[in-house]
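Schema walk-through. Below, the input block comes first and the output block second. Nothing else is stored per chain. Lengths vary across the set, and this one has 711 residues.
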Amino acid sequence: MRGSRRDRDLLPGFRGAPVATGPDGRGRVGLSRRSLRRAAQLSAGGGRALDQRPCNRLPLAALESAPLAQAIRGNPPMSQNPGRTDQRAKDLTTRRKLILGAAAGGAGALLVGRMWQLQIFQHEDLALEAEANRTRVEEVPPVRGMVFDASGRRLADNVPVFDFWLDTAGVDVETLPDLVAATAVPIGADPPELFRTLERAILNGFGEIEIARNLDRNTALVVRENTFRWPGIDLRPRYRREYFNGQTMGQLVGFTGPIPAESRDSYLDRGVSLSEDVGLSGIEMRFQDDLRGTSGRRLLEVGALKQDIRELHYTAPVTGANVHLTIDSPFQAGITAVLERFLSPEGAGVVIVLDPRNGNVLALVDYPTFDNSSFAAGISDDEFQGLISDPRHPLINHAISGLYPPGSTFKIVAAAAALEEGVVNAETPFECSGHLILPSGWIFHDWLKSGHGTVDLHRAIAESCNVYFYKISGGDPYAGFSGVRDKSLARYAREFGFGRASGIDLPHESPGTVPDRTWKQTALGAPWVTGDTYQAAIGQGFVQVNPLQLANMYAAIGNGGTLYRPRLVTHLTNSNGATIRRLNPEAIGQLPVSGANLALIRHALDDAVQGINGTGFRARTGAVRFAAKTGTAEYAGLRDENGNLPAHSWFAGYAPYEDPEIAFAVLIRDGGEGSHTAALVARDVLEFHFGGKVPPLRYPTLAAIRAEDPE
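--- output ---
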């Protein structure tokens, strides 16, 4: 390529110089220095003729009188031999032509080589570069799929909006005040703050930056009209989410938002544009790839100022899949209402309802929750700070992510392990005096201080006798009875679905903890002791479960032993409504209990509600006969005025007893005795399900519930 004028001017100049200089100082042409050297050799009596060809030698005297000698001395020769002189001139001319021809040929070769390089070797790269200077590719975001409840009601839809982007390379600081004046008011920005932000971006060469999101069509038109003279203004169309029933379904459906910084590379690898919103929680996150769809493309011709001139090519985006849930939103709302009215202003709780026949999730309520519509429209700082500062942590789905000791609801695992391992049978009796004292001096209490007397498996489950489960799990040191021990107890717990994620169609499920001596040594660096087995058998100590795991275990007990993966999504459809994928019920395990032993456990759970001494008697209802188990799970904290530790209240079971349609788990965080609040919530849940409407509230406050029976 040619150099610039400046580069050419910097090159040294060339002028014509004589090949030889005569005695008078004037230039002589026609004789080179080599010719002069050869001539000197000849004058010395040796050498060959100028053209290096053999010739007849001449006497020195003849040489001195030759025209060549005269030429050497500076005198022009007389034309004594015109033929030879003409030949030398021709030779010289030929030599010059050859030199010039070679130079021209070399230059031509260089030119041809450069042309080959540009047109052949670099053709594709240069063509792309030239094309890029006159075109640009714009990604067309796909329409995100919708979310529907079990009856086809919309839970998530889309609203068209525009995002305001600016290429700072097209704006200089001098015109920035005009740009701010033209855009700040329409987009609702503070002018000084917007000016500082853009000035910093321009001076630091940030390139493209997003100025505003979620502009409606009218606002976008105003911005476009006010900014037409600035290059690099880009109003990018997209869809933002619109949610329905957000106060009761928000936590399940989740919400979308900008890609988190730590996930950018992952999304880029999957073809997601950084300007897109992605699922950040719930169904929106779990089914992100299905809901998103596939981007389209527009090839646009642009002018010198990068303004769009015309569309050259268009590839349509593919709309994302629609997700259909197992939950009916009115039922979810009813369960939420039942739970909420039993809670204090600072209270929190979970209710889960499953179909034990297939694992379908019918309700999954965690209170307090959040309205996902707030995130779709752009949540305020104050509202967001209120959510994250709430000690009940409403942004966390405690139904699947919260971990709690299950209390006596877990005793079913110890009972099954003891029966299956042959440690006890249905009639094996144990004495309960209200406590068990180990030789080391440690005392393990029963909830009933006076004790239950002589109990078998049935009474131990129905009346929730702690001492019975201490002995069948960790043994009785005074009777030489060894019990199930920690390893077997932990193995059965895992086969009942604990210590591993259930596989529900939601992100961030916590697997929980099933402790044994290996776990304790690894996690805490401490040895396992008999007291650890006692505590594990009654769902205390190191045992941690999420409420969904507990509901799923009782669903398996109710259906005869099949453990299903909790199913929240039934199928996916395309934009035309055609089913593109089904998520069929999936059995993930079988309870390690024989039919006979499972029947013993089921009968005892029925008596826990219907029996005269059953701990779940408060939950009885004329709407349906059902089986269930109470649980009171103490945890480390400040003791109350009676010396009791804080405790969570549990109630879990299935209904109807004979042919279950639903299984449930109720957790009242810090609710105290399980036979109080949690049992009453469960009763109203059952009456709502089987009666079709939320029953009247029988107890106006939690204090009124406890006042009925201060046990």
